Amino acid sequence: MPSAINAQDIQVFVVRKDGAYLYLPKENQLKPVSKADLRSAVAGRQAFAATAPVSLVLVSDHSKFGNLPAAAASRMGAVDCGYVSQNICLICTALGLNTVPRATMDTDALKKALGLGEQYDLIMNSQIGYPKE
Question: Which has the closest alpha carbon to 54: 98, 107, 9, 10?
Answer without folding.
Answer: 98
